[in-house]
Specification:
This protein is 41% helix and 26% strand. It has 650 residues and is α+β, with helices and mostly antiparallel strands. The strands form five sheets. A five-stranded antiparallel β-sheet has the order 2-1-5-4-3, with helices on both faces. Strands 7-6-10-9-8 form a five-stranded antiparallel β-sheet. α13 packs antiparallel against α14, α14 crosses α17 and α15 packs parallel to α16. The longest helix has 46 residues. The N terminus and C terminus are likely disordered.
Length: 650
C-alpha cells in the first residue's frame, strides 16, 4: 500500500480484485496512517462528503469530523493504535464540503503487516443520515404524543406490551390518585396493585388485537372504596404494524353511577313502599285521599274507592261525589268536622255512614290534615279512611258481652258469698263432732264425719277460687304489696305443706333461698301461689321429690317449684292457664283439681308485677316458676308478719 496519498499499485489478480472492491464498495471506505492522515478513499465516501479524491487525500480524519465527536473518536483510536482493542464501532458526524453534516455508522479496524506490526487504519463508513432523520422524526412524534397525552383533558394511559407506562395524562394521575410519582417505564400492576385479575385478562385480549370497552365498571381500591369507571381499551402498533402495546381511555363516573344507583335504590324502595302500602290498605281496608280544596278534585287510592262500594276508574272522584255517598243523617256533622279542622288548623276526624250502590250501609272512620300556602290559605287536605263497619259491630257485641260478663261476675261473687256461709258452718260443726265436743261417735260415724269435713273443705276451696277468678275478671282483685322476707314466708309454707309430700312418700327439699332476699309482693297472694304449686306437684308426682328454690336474676327473684312427676305434654302447656281446663293425659282426672289454680296463680303474679313460666317433659317432671320484683329501698323495713325461721330440708 502506498503512502502520502498514493494509490497502491498491485498488478496481481488478487490485488486488482481488492482495489475494485475498495473503490466500488456501496459504503465509504478509507485507509489512514496511524496519525490519522487519509491515504486512500473510495468513490462512495467522496460522493457522500462532496469532496474530490484529491481534496480528501492528505487531510486527517480530524479535519472532517464534527467538533462535538472529536473526543470520542480520538479516545477509541488511541485504544486501537495502542493494541488494547482490535476494532471498534461508533456513530459520529462528518463535515460535508457544503457545510452540512453526515451521520455515519463507522467501523474501524487496524491493518497489520505480516509480522503483526501496525500498518494502517481501515474505516468503513455507512451513511445513516436517513435513519437518523427517521429516528429524529419518530422521537419528535413520540414527544409530541407524550405531550398531547399528558395535557389531554381525558384520562389516558399508553402502555407497552409488558404493561409498562409509555405516556400518561395528568387526568389519569388525578383520577387514580397517583400524584407526581414517576410512571414512565414502570409496571401498571406495580403502580396499581389492586388491578383485578379480570382486567388483566382484558389487557391480554387487547394486546392480542381486540378493542374493548365498558360503559360502567367497578374498581375496588386498596382502601376498600369503589371507583366506577367508563373505559375503552385498544392496541397501538409500531411502524411495522405489530401490536406494541395498548391505550386505555377512562372516565371516572363514580359520582354519576352512585347517583344512579342511589336513584334506583330509592325507586326500588318507593316501589316496595307503594306495594306495602297497597297491601296494608287492602289488609286493613283503608284508603288514602288527597282533596284539592280550591277546585274540589279528589285523588284516592284504589282501596279508598272500594270503600265506597265501586271499582277504581268507574266513577269521577270529587268532593261532590263524596258528599253524595255520605248518609244524609251524617252529612252535616261530617262537613262541620271538615270546616272546623280547616279553619282551626286542627286534625280532622269523623265517623260516618256511606251508602253503597247496592243500598247497603257501611261505616267509615276518617282522619286528615290540611295544608296551607304561605299566606295561610288552605290548599289541600290529605287523609285516610278506614272501614269501621266490623269495628262498630264488634263494639256493639263487646258492649253486650261486657254487660254479660259483669252480670256473670256479680252472680258468681254473690253466689260464692252465699255458699261460703253454710260451708263454713258444715266444716265447723263436723270439726266439733270429730273432736268429741258433742259426744262420742262410733267409728263409722267418725269416718263419715271425716268425709263430710274433707268434702266441705274441697268445696270451700272451689268456691274461693271461683270468687278469685270472678274478681280478677271484674278487675276488683285487691293486691296489698309490701316488702317481705321471701325465705321466711317460704319456710313457713314448706312446713305446712310437708305432710302432703310425706303422705305420698316423696322427698321435699326447700326452701333453697338466701335469707337476705326481700321482695315487694302481697304476702297473702304469695302464700296462695306457693300452696297451689306445691300441692299440684305433690298431687302429680308418684315417686321422687318436690323442690322449692329461689334464683335472683337482676331486679327480680324467681321462685321455682320442681317435681319428678308425670309431666305435661308439649301441646297442653299453652292450655294450662285456661280456666277450668284439665289435662286429658291418662290418670290426670283421677288426681282431682278444678282447673282454676294455675290461671289464678298466673293472674296474681302478673298483678304483682312478675312473670309466670312453666317447662315440662312428659314422664320426667315439671318446673313452675314465677318472678317477683326485688325490694331495693334500704330505708323501708320488710313486713314483720313473717319472721325468718330455721331452714327445713337439705
Amino acid at each position: 500500500m502506498g503512502r502520502h496519498g498514493q494509490q497502491p499499485q498491485d498488478c496481481s489478480e488478487e490485488g486488482r480484485r481488492y482495489v475494485a472492491t475498495f473503490d466500488q464498495a456501496a459504503v465509504g471506505m478509507v485507509h489512514a496512517d496511524l496519525d490519522g492522515r487519509l491515504l486512500r478513499v473510495n468513490d462512495r465516501i467522496c460522493a457522500t462528503l462532496g469532496y474530490s479524491r484529491e481534496a480528501l487525500l492528505g487531510r486527517t480524519w480530524r479535519d472532517i469530523t464534527h467538533p462535538d465527536d472529536l473526543a470520542a473518536s480520538a479516545a477509541q483510536l488511541g485504544e486501537l493504535v495502542a493494541g488494547r482493542i482490535e476494532s471498534f464501532a461508533i456513530e459520529k458526524r462528518y463535515l460535508r464540503k457544503d457545510g452540512g453534516t453526515l451521520w455515519a455508522n463507522v467501523t474501524v479496524a487496524l491493518v497489520r503487516h505480516a509480522d503483526g506490526s501496525p500498518d494502517c487504519i481501515l474505516a468503513v463508513i455507512e451513511d445513516i443520515n436517513a435513519r437518523k432523520a427517521i429516528a429524529d422524526a419518530l422521537r419528535t412524534s413520540v414527544n409530541q404524543l407524550q405531550l398531547f397525552i399528558e395535557h389531554a383533558p381525558a384520562s389516558i394511559a399508553m402502555l407497552d406490551r409488558d404493561m409498562r407506562y409509555v405516556a400518561v395524562s395528568r387526568r389519569w394521575r388525578a383520577d387514580f390518585g397517583l400524584g407526581d410519582q414517576p410512571l414512565v417505564g414502570r409496571s401498571h400492576y406495580v403502580i396499581l396493585p389492586e388491578v383485578p385479575e379480570r382486567w388483566k385478562v382484558l389487557h391480554r385480549r387487547s394486546l392480542a388485537g381486540e378493542v374493548l370497552r365498558a360503559e360502567e365498571d367497578s374498581f375496588v381500591r386498596e382502601d376498600g372504596s369503589v371507583q366506577w369507571l367508563r373505559w375503552e381499551m385498544l392496541p397501538w402498533r409500531d411502524a411495522a404494524g405489530a401490536v406494541a402495546g395498548i391505550m386505555i381511555f377512562s372516565e371516572d363516573v363514580t359520582e354519576r353511577t352512585e347517583s344512579r344507583l342511589a336513584l334506583q335504590a330509592s325507586e326500588q324502595r318507593l316501589q316496595t313502599a307503594q306495594a306495602r302500602l297497597s297491601l296494608a290498605q287492602s289488609v286493613t281496608h283503608s284508603g288514602f285521599w288527597d282533596w284539592d280544596i280550591r277546585d274540589g278534585t279528589v285523588f284516592g287510592t284504589p282501596e279508598l274507592v272500594r270503600l265506597f262500594g265501586v271499582e277504581p276508574g268507574s266513577v269521577v272522584q270529587s268532593f261532590e261525589a263524596w258528599r253524595a255517598a255520605v248518609h244524609p243523617d251524617d252529612l252535616t256533622q261530617v262537613e262541620d268536622a271538615v270546616s272546623r279542622a280547616v279553619s282551626g288548623r286542627t286534625p280532622y276526624f269523623a265517623e260516618y255512614r256511606v251508602r253503597w250502590p247496592d243500598g247497603s250501609l257501611h261505616w267509615l272512620r276518617a282522619y286528615g290534615n290540611a295544608i296551607y300556602d304561605e299566606q295561610g290559605a288552605p290548599l289541600r287536605m290529605l287523609g285516610i279512611c278506614l272501614d269501621a263497619t266490623d269495628l262498630k259491630a264488634w263494639a256493639s257485641a263487646a258492649a253486650s258481652s261486657d254487660a254479660a260478663n259483669r252480670a256473670k261476675s256479680e252472680f258468681l261473687a254473690t253466689m260464692s258469698h252465699e255458699l261460703r256461709t253454710p260451708l263454713n258452718s258444715i266444716i265447723g260443726f263436723s270439726s266439733l263432732m270429730l273432736e268429741g265436743l258433742t259426744g262420742p261417735c262410733t267409728p263409722e260415724q267418725t269416718r263419715q264425719l271425716g268425709m263430710i269435713q274433707k268434702s266441705g273443705q274441697q268445696l270451700l276451696e272451689l268456691v274461693t277460687e271461683i270468687l278469685d277468678i270472678a274478681k280478677i275478671e271484674a278487675g276488683t282483685l285487691s293486691i296489698q304489696a309490701e316488702p317481705l322476707h321471701l325465705r321466711a314466708l317460704l319456710a313457713e309454707q314448706c312446713q305446712l305443706l310437708r305432710p302432703l309430700t310425706d303422705e305420698r312418700g316423696l322427698e321435699f327439699h326447700g326452701p333453697q333461698c338466701d335469707p337476705d332476699v326481700v321482695v315487694v309482693a302481697d304476702p297473702k297472694r304469695v302464700r296462695q301461689i306457693v300452696r297451689n304449686l306445691v300441692s299440684n306437684a305433690a298431687k302429680f308426682t308418684d315417686a321422687g321429690h318436690v323442690r322449692v328454690s329461689v334464683e335472683v336474676d337482676g331486679d327480680v327473684a324467681r321462685i321455682c317449684v320442681e317435681d319428678t312427676g308425670i309431666g305435661i305434654a308439649a301441646d297442653e302447656l299453652d292450655r294450662l292457664f285456661v280456666p277450668f281446663w284439665r289435662s286429658h293425659a291418662p290418670g290426670s282426672f283421677a288426681r282431682g283439681g278444678t282447673g282454676l289454680g294455675l290461671p289464678i296463680s298466673r293472674r296474681l303474679v302478673e298483678a304483682m308485677g312478675g312473670e309466670f313460666s312453666v317447662s315440662s317433659e312428659l314422664g320426667r317432671g315439671s318446673r313452675f316458676a314465677f318472678s317477683l320484683p326485688l325490694h331495693r329501698d334500704p330505708g323501708a323495713e320488710p313486713a314483720d308478719c313473717v319472721q325468718p325461721s330455721p331452714p327445713t330440708g337439705p
